[in-house]
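Support reply, case 0932

Customer input (verbatim):
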Amino acid sequence: MSQSPGNPSNNLRILTRFLALSSHRTTTHIYHLNRLLLQTPYLDALLAFLTYTFTFLAARLPRTSQSARRLAGLLSDTRMVLRLFGLIPLYAAAIKLRGSQNLNRDWVLRWIERINMAAGLVFQVAENVAFLGDKGVLGRRQGGWGKWWACSSKAWAVSVAGEIGRLGREWWLVDVGAKGDTVNEVSEVKQKDLTKKEGGALVVGRERAIDEKAGKWEERENEKWWREMVVNAAYAPMTLHWSFEERLLSEGVVGMLGILAGGLGLREAWKRTA
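Our regenerated output:
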């Protein structure tokens, strides 16, 4: 005798399978989140998104504004604690850039790299001093640490402007045909393969494979370019907002811009830790 859809035992089996599947998916997501949390840059992406989410909620929900603002401040402090040792990788990168023999061939991009490196160093020093000063680690200072905070924000603004300039220059170079090294390497590999004296079918097959590889690379680079441009365009007004004592943006606008930039960063971090 067949069981009806409403049979309790049949429903129990369906529920058990659903719970097992849900448990598996939940476990998979938890492991994925754990991989993300184990790496500081990816953890910072998550914290940035949460910080600006609570900032936005503080502006939009008056009843919970105090709690949301405190949570945003706590998360922001956590990010700055994680960046306290940021001078070490910055210093290592500066030494590597100085001694590199494979500098970018475009002189504009070379100068932008140097300016961004200098701005990053100034930002990290100023932020560390301001943060530790506000926490009382460096003692009291007449007038507070506002000038150090403003200095870090202005250095951040220079860095963001440099990144936008770099992206604009790269767009222009691609537009005029001066593509990056990777594209040139793909083209060279393609030419070498095509000049080999092998069967026509094999050569055509290789050509298609290389064309497909180049197409996928170009698609990834385009996606990366747009993501970085949107992120920096969102951060740009925020850097100016914090560079002056008289704030330029409302809390809600800061939250929205931060959610946009942080969301894109978190999305990329999630993809990289898949």
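We compared this against your earlier run and they match. Two observations from our side: Residues 200-241 form the longest helix (42 residues). The radius of gyration is 25 Å. Please reopen the case if you see a mismatch on your end.
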